[in-house]
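Late entry, evening session. Most of the bench is empty. Finally got around to the prediction I had been postponing all week. Sequence below, unchanged from the version circulated by S.P.
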Amino acid sequence: MKKDIKDLKVVFMGTPEFATVVLKKLIDNTNVVLVVAQPDKEVGRKRELMPSSVKKVAVENNIDVFTPNKIRNEYEYIFKYEPDIIITCAYGQIIPKELLDYPKYKCVNVHASLLPLLRGGAPIHRAIINGFKETGITIMYMNEKMDEGDIISQSKIKIEETDNVGTLHDKLAVLGSELLIETLPSIINDEIEPIKQDSSKATYGYIIKREDEHLDFSDTSTNVYNKIRGLNPFPSAYIILDDTEIKVLDAYIGTKTSEKPSIITNVYKDGFSVSTLDKEVIITKIKVSGKKEMFARDYINGRKKENLIGKEVK
């Protein structure tokens, strides 16, 4: 007789919004006995402590929450819940071997890429920035190394030219939650043959740093556009214009060419164009430092056209 995942005692470990979609699916289909999340963070000028998205969902569903500063030093608390399986999704800390070895069905991770491609903490951003045509979800057994465990299952999704990191994030969160629920019965009924990753094909989706957010218009239009949408809406790409930081939230590739990149070459009804290595990128939505988001056309209306064209974007 096959085992049912409804009786599966799950400890879930995750932190951001992406992980909440997976957690909600688990709550509906399994017995989640504990949620482990990153500690509350200080937010805003008043430095108010705010819980993570995952913690909020756990509290709303009356599930115990554990928020250790360093899981490698405080993992033993989890043992009292006697989980059958530990499932992680964007947790943000390295899981110690003692915890990896404890559950009957081991520790399983939901990762937002087609491993071994884009191991690391920002696979959704990097898939778009790197110009991938497709990405997906990998369900994998965890080991002590970053995203190097054996693959249990995968599911692909096409990256549309209109996708940004926000839309792709939402699609992958749903895909990940569904693939996990589809895969769990095979895990607990010993019906899988895990596949070892080919590390020679590994690439990395490193966490986005401040320097990654700056737009370099000496690159091709395609690469600049991919970077804009790969950082929209979080954390957002930026330019410097007239010594002011401007976040670039939306754009598209134009058709005109220019000999010199990084120059504002034209003003259109919907935005202003910046020359690139090969064409132009037309910026249509921005956020000037200290102000609210606005359409680029409204920004243009507040300036004289002749004082904008010819400006260098840094």
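Two things to note before I forget:
Residues 264 and 274 are 4 Å apart (CA to CA).
The first strand starts at residue 9 and ends at 14.
Will write this up properly tomorrow.
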